[in-house]
């Protein structure tokens, strides 16, 4: 079967728009007639208009269109058609992509955001929009798919096997999103409006939580000047409440001899503590899309397009943060599981710091993604086609983490209140169920005569990321029995990433300071909040109005955060130092820029031949990539001017004299051979084989050059990290894919089975070195430090965390089965019944290590679930459509975010959605939908299920809406 025939069929399917065209077998027969007519000199446009198209509207049409896209692709690919995205109101592209085989999602705040492909985390997934590299607001390589409204994306493809003409970067796979092409629209003018209201059924449990939300979108596509100019515009708005009730266990980063057995190397590990919180807020996303196409001649096509998405989040967390401080607490009745303390009674010692913090956190996150492109496609000759593409992608993010701590006083009414040091905390973890808790101060948590605000801190993360790229591709058609065409291209890109940290702190989260005294609360500042439902056994607490508290604490105006060395940093000029002052040098050292310049070129031969009378198509080629990466750096030279030390002034005007600024980095080159072969065994059966060497660069923020350290004022222990480095190299893998695809000719559907194998050469591992002597390594660590109370303590070695390329790789292998069937052989009433489902099994020998205090444990590859399943049962009849969908993944490793990101094991989950709709007439339809029908929680644990991580409930989302098209 020729490539020409494939392309014609694909065009016919795409031209059907919302209505799916005829079956693949009928289309092949009719298109064969078209080719004969074309070769005889008949009018092509007229011939296409005369082809009878049987319209099968609805969800089944989009499934079949996706199968045809897969069938005629030249690589191992999964796709979602425009019809599918238009008919299923996914909140974002993340939700839409999880319906594909071998693809699963990590839920953040109850919403799918990061996607995993074939057991590999989002960092191994490369993404493009209209074929152009996209940057992310996360500081990572992988984009945040919830930033992309499904209403503005016309199609999505997931390339599981690459070809050299695709931009390199996806070891797991490449996701290509596309916006509308107006000249390919079915009608001359197309206008669509969607409006939906939304309700979350758990919002009434969250004090101050918002119950209702809404979605609205419209799009227009039009063709003008005899179909030589096309215009498309679109707008999509999402406003939704974000609510959850949660328990979060914190990392096991403390150790002590709890069981009384003197084994210095086998001290028990103790959690930092845990949190119990109500979380709420509002999310607002506004997306915009525009495109214009111009075909001045039949040999030239000019396209310009733009995409913009703004995602703003206002979020709060109210509740408790329990700090056990187990290495300095008196511990009674300890419960130990596998050397980890999962329960006991923790009593604060005289000089200890065990405490219960009442937290009132307010976070804002303002993310913006922009993408612009300009493309010229020119048929230079009958055989030679040239394509030039110019693109810009940028992402900006401002995340402000605002924290307000309150502690219990003996009496808040006295002029000089004293912290209540009589603290006793009892708890027992119950694995993946909520724990048992008890507090001797419980009665004070709702008493404004006892609770006082002790500290306010705000810690902004300001990220920007942008890439400008230039690409030239050429394709030369051949009259050859083996090669159908030859392709070559070159691409150059420049990327700049910057991260800026800021800080403002006042007070202490563990004490009452005389220099920065606590704030007395008043009735108008607080509300008493009760936990309910599954969490009703947790104690009540005071929720504090952040703005009222801050205005009372800072009557002259709330100070703003800055990037500053801090007056307690030893590198600051002596005249600017303050004994016991804050050391916030991390805000400077963790800020900086990363630069990445990439030159890539490829050559590829497209095949169209026969082997033993079996038609064979595909491609073979090689891609060369040269990468230059470097980052700004501050090297500590101890203030030695001859070694390059300079006076560096921060935003507060403080001058540091210790560091030498510079730029460091490296250049490397890679060659990536790739091959895709497709064997057409019969008209409905085909076999695919693919082999490739692939790479994924480190997350862009990991290429920064920064080293930071802190000194624990309680113990004097020094801990530090340099977990980023511009000398990190990419992840490399050699992969193989084999798949068998059978497309049903009597009915609509397909059966696909695939196996894959990835040989991973290396990973980036982060190691923690215990008892690291920072002073001996050249860090400017003083012999003694001054505590907040004026006493001194000797500094001592602690943990040092650093990242390196680890050449200890391994395999990832697995199998996938997908089955889709529209049961048209059933009696007429049931002919709209159908099923689509998939199952994926993935395993790996790769073990990575994470540190739990002084103990290092092995974990599976992040993102890997051995079993992933999707299933959709649907039925359509005379305008009515209903379907229920489920997606399941079993246990996997990823990160949860508490005080800091923590690597944990997530429990398996099954998320079920339901939708029903009725198309009243050709223009107007109504819809009802429930997301997360069973209110599936997110649960995680450390190491084994006894060590509780997160237990988080998000609630069900109900949607009612209508759409209008003409």
Describe the structure.
Helices cover 7% and strands 54% of the residues. It is built from 8 helices and 56 strands. It has a 22-stranded antiparallel barrel. Strands 3-8-9-6-7 form a 5-stranded mixed beta sheet. A 4-stranded antiparallel beta sheet has the order 18-19-22-23, with no helix packed on it. Helix 1 crosses helix 2 (24-39). 45% of the residues are buried. Keywords: Cell outer membrane, Membrane, Receptor, Signal, TonB box. Pfam families: Plug, TonB_dep_Rec_b-barrel. Residues 1-24 form the signal peptide.
In angstroms, what is the radius of gyration? 30 Å
What percent of the residues sit in helical stretches (DSSP H or I)? under 10%
Instruction: Output mean pLDDT.
Output: 86
Q: Give the helix/strand class.
A: mainly beta
Distance between the termini: 38 Å
The main sheet comes to: 22 strands, antiparallel, barrel
Strand content: over 45%
Instruction: Characterize the overall form.
Output: globular
- Count of runs of 4 or more consecutive helical residues: 8
Pfam families: Plug, TonB_dep_Rec_b-barrel
Keywords: Cell outer membrane, Membrane, Receptor, Signal, TonB box
Signal peptide: 1-24
Organism: Rheinheimera soli
């Amino acid at each position: 079967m020729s490539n020409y025939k494939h392309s014609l069929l694909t065009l016919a399917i795409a031209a059907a728009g919302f209505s799916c065209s005829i079956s693949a077998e009928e289309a092949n027969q009719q298109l064969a007639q078209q080719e004969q007519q074309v070769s005889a000199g008949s009018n092509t446009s007229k011939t296409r208009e005369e082809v009878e198209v049987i319209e099968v509207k609805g969800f089944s049409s989009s499934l079949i269109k996706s199968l045809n896209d897969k069938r005629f692709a030249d690589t191992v690919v999964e796709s979602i058609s425009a019809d599918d995205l238009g008919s299923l109101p996914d909140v974002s592209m993340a939700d839409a992509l999880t319906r594909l085989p071998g693809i699963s999602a990590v839920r953040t705040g109850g919403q799918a955001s990061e996607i995993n492909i074939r057991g590999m985390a989002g960092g191994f997934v490369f993404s493009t929009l209209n074929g152009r590299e996209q940057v992310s607001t996360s500081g990572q390589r992988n984009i945040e798919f919830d930033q992309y409204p499904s209403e503005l994306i016309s199609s999505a493809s997931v390339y599981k096997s690459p070809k050299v003409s695709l931009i390199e970067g996806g070891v797991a796979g490449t996701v290509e999103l596309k916006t509308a092409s107006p000249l390919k629209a079915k009608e001359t003018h197309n206008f669509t409006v969607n409006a939906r209201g939304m309700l979350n059924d758990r919002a009434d449990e969250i004090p101050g939580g918002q119950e209702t939300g809404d979605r609205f979108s419209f799009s227009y596509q039009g063709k003008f000047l005899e179909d030589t100019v096309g215009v498309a515009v679109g707008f999509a708005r999402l406003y939704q409440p974000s609510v959850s009730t949660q328990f979060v266990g914190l990392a096991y980063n403390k150790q002590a001899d709890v069981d009384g057995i003197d084994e210095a190397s086998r001290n028990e590990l103790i959690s930092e503590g845990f949190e119990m919180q109500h979380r709420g807020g509002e999310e607002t996303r506004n997306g915009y899309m525009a495109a214009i196409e111009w075909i001045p001649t039949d040999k030239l096509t000019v396209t310009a397009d733009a995409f913009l998405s703004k995602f703003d989040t206002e979020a709060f967390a109210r509740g408790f943060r329990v700090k056990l401080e187990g290495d300095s607490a008196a511990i009674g009745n300890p419960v130990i599981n596998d050397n980890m303390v999962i329960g006991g009674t923790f009593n604060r010692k005289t000089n200890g710091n065990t405490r219960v913090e009442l937290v009132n956190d307010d976070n804002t996150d303002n993310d913006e993604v922009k993408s612009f492109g300009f493309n010229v496609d020119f048929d230079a000759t009958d055989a030679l086609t040239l394509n030039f593409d110019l693109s810009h992608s940028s992402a900006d993010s401002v995340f402000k983490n605002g924290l307000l701590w309150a502690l219990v006083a003996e009496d808040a009414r006295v002029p000089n209140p004293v912290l209540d040091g009589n603290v006793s905390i009892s708890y027992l973890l119950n694995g993946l169920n909520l724990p048992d808790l008890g507090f001797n101060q419980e009665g004070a948590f709702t008493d404004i005569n006892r609770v006082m605000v002790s500290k306010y801190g705000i810690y902004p993360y300001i990220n920007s990321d942008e890439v400008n790229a230039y690409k030239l591709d050429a394709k030369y058609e051949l009259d050859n029995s083996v090669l159908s065409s030859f392709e070559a291209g070159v691409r150059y890109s420049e990327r700049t990433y910057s991260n800026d940290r800021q800080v403002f702190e006042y007070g202490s989260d563990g004490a009452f300071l005389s220099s920065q005294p606590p704030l007395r609360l008043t009735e108008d500042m607080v509300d008493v909040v009760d936990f309910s439902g599954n969490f009703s056994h947790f104690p009540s607490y005071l929720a504090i109005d952040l703005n009222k508290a801050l205005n009372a604490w800072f009557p002259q105006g709330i100070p703003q955060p800055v990037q500053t060395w801090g007056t307690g940093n030893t590198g600051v000029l002596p005249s600017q130092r303050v004994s016991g002052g804050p050391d916030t040098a991390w805000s400077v050292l963790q800020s900086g820029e990363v630069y990445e310049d990439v030159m890539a070129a490829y050559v590829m031969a497209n095949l169209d031949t026969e082997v033993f009378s079996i038609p064979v198509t595909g491609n073979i080629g090689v891609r060369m990539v040269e990468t230059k990466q470097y980052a700004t750096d501050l090297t500590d030279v101890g203030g030695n001017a001859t070694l390059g030390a300079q006076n560096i002034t921060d935003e507060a005007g403080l001058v540091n004299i210790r560091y030498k600024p510079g730029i460091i980095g490296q250049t490397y080159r890679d060659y990536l051979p790739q091959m895709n072969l497709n064997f057409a065994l019969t008209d409905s059966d085909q076999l695919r084989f693919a082999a490739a060497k692939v790479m994924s660069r480190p997350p862009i923020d990991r290429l920064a050059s920064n080293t930071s350290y802190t000194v624990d004022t309680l113990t004097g222990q020094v801990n530090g990290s340099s977990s980023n480095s511009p000398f990190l190299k990419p992840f490399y893998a050699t992969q193989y894919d084999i798949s068998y695809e059978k497309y049903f000719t009597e009915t609509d559907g397909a059966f696909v089975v695939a196996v894959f194998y990835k040989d991973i050469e290396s990973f980036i591992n982060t190691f923690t070195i215990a008892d690291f002597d920072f002073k001996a390594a050249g860090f400017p660590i003083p012999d003694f430090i001054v505590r907040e109370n004026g006493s001194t303590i000797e500094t001592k070695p602690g943990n040092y965390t650093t990242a390196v390329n680890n050449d200890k790789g391994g395999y990832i292998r697995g199998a996938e089965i997908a089955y889709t069937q529209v049961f048209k052989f059933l009696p007429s009433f049931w002919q709209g019944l159908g099923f689509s489902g998939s199952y994926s099994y993935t395993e790996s020998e790769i073990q990575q290590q994470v540190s739990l205090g002084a103990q290092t444990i092995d974990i599976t590859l992040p993102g890997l679930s051995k079993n992933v399943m999707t299933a959709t049962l649907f039925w359509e009849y005379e305008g009515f459509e209903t379907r229920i969908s489920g997606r399941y993944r079993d246990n996997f490793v990823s990160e949860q975010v508490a005080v800091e990101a923590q690597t944990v094991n997530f429990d398996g989950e099954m998320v079920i959605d339901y939708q029903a709709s009725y198309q009243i007439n050709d223009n107007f339809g109504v819809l009802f939908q429930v997301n997360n029908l069973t209110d599936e929680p997110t649960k995680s644990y450390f190491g084994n299920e006894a060590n509780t991580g997160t237990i988080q409930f998000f609630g069900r989302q109900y949607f009612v809406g209508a759409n209008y098209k003409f």
